[in-house]
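thought: fold this chain, then report.
action: predict
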Amino acid sequence: MNPHIEVYRLRNRIHPTAIIGDNVFLGSNNIIDAYAVIDGNTIIGDNNHFFPFCSVGTEPEHKSFYGSENKGVKIGSDNVIRESVTINAGCYRMTKLGNGIWMLKGSHVGHDTIVGDNCVLGCNVICGGHCYIGKHSNIGLGVVLHQFSVIGGGSMLGMGAVVTKQSFVEPFCTYVGNPARYLKQNLVVFNKLEQCDIDSIETEYNYQLENNRL
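observation:
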């Protein structure tokens, strides 16, 4: 039993059947529904909703790191984590989710992945390990991201798209198909942002292309 569980129950709404590990830190006003599991070295902010049967912070799906101490998961605030979502702990760095993210039913974030603020991951999206998904991205139903994929902020991936080892998903663009190919600009997001935010997203994309290899 987590030694701080009674304190957590005072500032969060935790269903009696939910499992909270001993090394989990919870902020305030989180809702953790029936049979959700939050384990490992996991840090969670405020105002998140974890729906039934989701799994957060479990060991990475990596043979070399199975059973060893992992780097954990860090989740920001105001996120919605729907039913049967899985978020694995990192091997080399914390798996990180920012703020205002929606992960829909059955989606998966692999170890060492980073998901930026205000992203949407549709039902059954699969992100391999070490992926980077930039802010304001919309990942459609059933999309598959190869490990180490870099998804530029403000981008959109159409239903069933497959981002392969050779694919590039540039910021503020729409991609479709298998393998994913450029379709058009995603002006819906681009036109809502200030120039400083656009510049920041493009700079981060270029940085990740150069450095998202371990």
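thought: worth noting. The chain has three helices and 25 strands.
final: tokens above.
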